Amino acid sequence: MRYEFSSAIALRDAITSKKLSAVDVVRNALQRQVDCESHLNCFATRTPELALEAAYRADQAIQTGQPPGALHGLPISVKDLIAIGGVRQMFGSRSMEFNVAQTDAPAVARIKAAGACIIGTTTTSEFGCKAVGDSPLTGITRNPWNTDKTPGGSSCGAAASVAAGVTPFALGTDGGGSIRAPSSLTGLFGIKAQFARVPVFPASATPTLGHVGPLARTVRDAALLLSVIAGHDPRDPFSVAGKVPDFQKACDLPIKGMRLAWSPTLGYAKPDPEVVRITELAVKRFESLGCEIIDLSEGIGGDPVACWMAEFYAGVGTRLNETLRTKRHLLDPAVASMLDKALDLSLLDYYSQVFVRYQFREKIRTLFNSFDLLLTPTLPVSAFDVGLDIPPQFSDRNVCSWQYYTYPFNLTGQPAASLPVGFTNDELPVGLQLVAAINQEVDIFRAAAAFEAAFPWDGIRPPLLDRHRP
Predict the structure, then answer these.
(1) Nearest to 397 by CA among 333, 334, 343, 320
(2) Residue 400 and residue 271: Cα distance in Å, rounded?
(3) 184 is catalytic
(4) Tell me: domain 8-305+347-454, CATH 3.90.1300.10, correct?
């Protein structure tokens, strides 16, 4: 029996009720991993022994009457930027090829404690510095909807593997769109929660921008995974204290009367007309579900890209300065060039943008007094050809800043997600970004779950290994 496109919740319930064994489910995931790898190149390191050991423990716990964990027996992958103790953590870089993580990141420790079975680490662009799916270490990761196209990045392997049915969900990271962008290009639901809702330790290269979060095929599976990894950790000085919202319960809340602002460009983006057409249709579908749509065509003002780049450059430049100096020959040339620019950033230039960031955050905070969610396209394009760092029409931007819609909300720290809402004429997925007010992930889950229930995508599969869209 094959389980590759079953939801996490359905698999967990079948395992805990003894209808399925965790070992069988994990073996199925490991076989799917092997079957897909030559087509997609999703995994940096495979950990079948680790996964099967966890699966055996999960089955033994059920047999002996122990209470199951929230992720009991479920296969999952973890992005190569996130530490798994005793497993290679290479950051997608030849300069770190032999690095082994010493301890589990908080999110990894929590999924293990909840019973998850980690089948491997997924590919990333080098140090997460590009929004596409390739690195000199692992090569090109491909999109299961069309293997000539990129799945986006930097959580490329996470997105491609979940979309292909290897695991029901995965852990990714997002410092400027790296969960939401690949989710959009591969037809997944991916969310970065409120900044520091999920604690990060050790600190990432971009500690005031970076998030850890789920990519999943269903909204409720993402809610389940986020509920496990969220919560305070004193090792992260930014970590949000207090009770974690009930993300799973939020999926059952009504949405009639919600106020949704629609901004197709944010006032500065240049989206493909087909992307606008598809996302506008999704907005009309929300209106048909009883939501009030507010026109925000004027957007949010000017493009905050200089502010985001300053914060990003300051982080990666500081963290990777020594790597650039001693191991430049091992780096992706595009990443090395980015680091050169990062090291040119002056202290005065950086702090001037810190103050701009404070002003931008306050502007967006007050803007949300008029609505519950802001809707935008997640990306200005659908998936483009592998081997390119930037979509051809955005050659004036850099390897990250062509993601017009995502990085503003890393600056503000607000919850933001990508919701799959349709396909281009070339049968490539398109995502709609949902941005909530500060600390209001609940609004994203209630809206996204209602949309999924009314306009389900569960039966739509990528055309990989003889799986075709109906």
Answers:
(1) 334
(2) 16
(3) no
(4) yes
CA 252 to chain centre: 23
Nearest to 383 by CA among 212, 214, 140: 140
Which tokens go with 426?
Answer: 């070339």
Determine whether 21 is an active site residue. no
Token output for 147: 């293997």
Q: Which two tokens stand for residue 121?
A: 């680490």
Catalytic hit among 77, 79, 239, 382: 79
Q: Which of 21, 154, 155, 263 is catalytic?
A: 154
The count of other CB atoms within 10 Å of the CB of residue 341 is 12
Question: Where do the structural domains in the chain lie, given as residue ranges?
Answer: 8-305+347-454
Which pLDDT tens digit goes with each residue over 239-290? Answer: 999 999 999 999 999 999 999 999 999 999 999 999 999 999 999 999 999 9
Whether 384 and 353 have beta carbons less than 8 Å apart is answered as no
Catalytic-role residue among 21, 77, 161, 178? 178
Tokens of 464: 């990989």
What is the C-alpha separation between 412 and 20, in angstroms, rounded?
43
How far is residue 131's CA from residue 400's CA, in Å, rounded to a whole number?
6
Instruction: Find out whether 174 and 210 touch, Cβ atoms under 8 Å.
Output: yes
Q: Sign (positive/negative) of CA torsion 3, 56, 110, 157?
A: negative
Distances (CA, A) of 225 to 118, 150, 182, 246, 252: 13, 25, 18, 12, 17
Dist CA 228 CA 207 (whole Å): 21
Do residues 461 and 32 lie in contact, with contact meaning Cβ atoms separated by under 8 Å? Answer: no
Letter string b/e over residues 443-468, b meaning 16 or more CB atoms within 10 A of that residue's CB: bbbbbbbbbbeebebeebbbebeeee
Strand partners, 191: 417
> How does pLDDT run across 90-143, given as a tens digit for each residue?
999 999 999 999 999 999 999 999 999 999 999 999 999 999 999 999 999 999
pTM: 0.97
Contact 253, 245 (CB under 8 A): no
> Is residue 79 flagged as an active site residue?
yes
